[in-house]
Amino acid sequence: MKPILEINNVSKKYQLRKALSYLSLRDSIANSLTLKSRGKNTEFWALQDVSFEVQQGESIGIIGRNGAGKSTLLKILSKITPPTSGFIKARGRVASLLEVGTGFHPELTGRENVYLNGSILGLRKQEIDRKFEEIIDFAGTGQFLETPLKHYSSGMKLRLAFAVAAFLEPEVLVIDEVLAVGDAAFQKKCLGKMDEVTRSGRTVLFVSHNMGSVRQLCPRTIVLEGGQKVFDGPTSQAINSYLENTKNIANEISIGERKDRDGGTKFRFLDVQFRIKSIGQPVQFVSTGEELNIECFYQCQQACLGNEVEVSIAFYNASGAFLFACRNSAAGYPLSLNNEKGKFCCTLEKNPLKKGRYSYNLIAFINGEVVDAVGEAGFIDVQIGDYYGTGKTPAINRPGVCVDYKWK
After folding, report:
1. Do 217 and 347 lie in a common domain?
2. What is this structure's pTM?
């Protein structure tokens, strides 16, 4: 049996134009006929020689860091943008849910948009009529059926868009990271519907940062990194490969060599170390409920000395959901840059994180300007119980939202 999708050596190149300077209108017009003021173009390969096949009825996850090429791949699959090289062969109708409201018109009512979106997917009016009541019932937007879409919340648009895509029975359903917009109950409802879609013999391609959802829905997962396919196989192995690769990249911060950061060079985080009271050296594992010290090492240029800096550490769970942030300015702890190299310490009196692995982002501001920002700067593993033999067993096992901390 031939695969329903064939992706053959697909690559996508973009030209990134960098403006040389900001010009006045007069200068822009005067220089428009010369090469002097034109920006320099650089090539960026969002995808490079990606190949795989999808059989009918498969449910495949696609995961990777931001910028790995996931959304570009789905846009090519959905024929929103053509590949620079390579080709895709689809043996069936493809429906896409890439962004909230894609294929909808804000001035039309909910009812009219169902028919508009259905026709964009290539369906006849009779087909839409047959499924109309099921679509509205699933979306839960019946009382707003005659209301223009511009008055819908983003969650309502998502529910309607998902219902149209799922109930109009395309052979292939392509879903990007849009379910994060919906509430927890609707996300559960969507996952149930997607599972039903695959059991009916149709195909799902699902891009998400929610590893739990990918694990639940997709037996097979593809990992993209830097526009290339680095893994294609069982989902559990794919997730482990992705997390390990992400951890390796994040650990480069210890020598300050991370390239995927924003903010320039006048202030740079060099390292982050986690310490607990009973252990002298930095630790990789901590326990729920114990005091936790987070040391942020930095270097800055002489011009920054004497300025106050705002530092934020934001924690995320394994699914990529934001949990809480420790920001010195919000807590009323001013931090000054007195030396070109130094450290700041944030103390959590009771670590609120339950058992699991967590990532954290770092960001620093000087006078409201972002001077360094590192996404997925590192990882910390949390255990339950007396991991280091300190005689202390934490009493709590729940994720924290409101957290007590102090800075120095």
Report:
1. no
2. 0.60
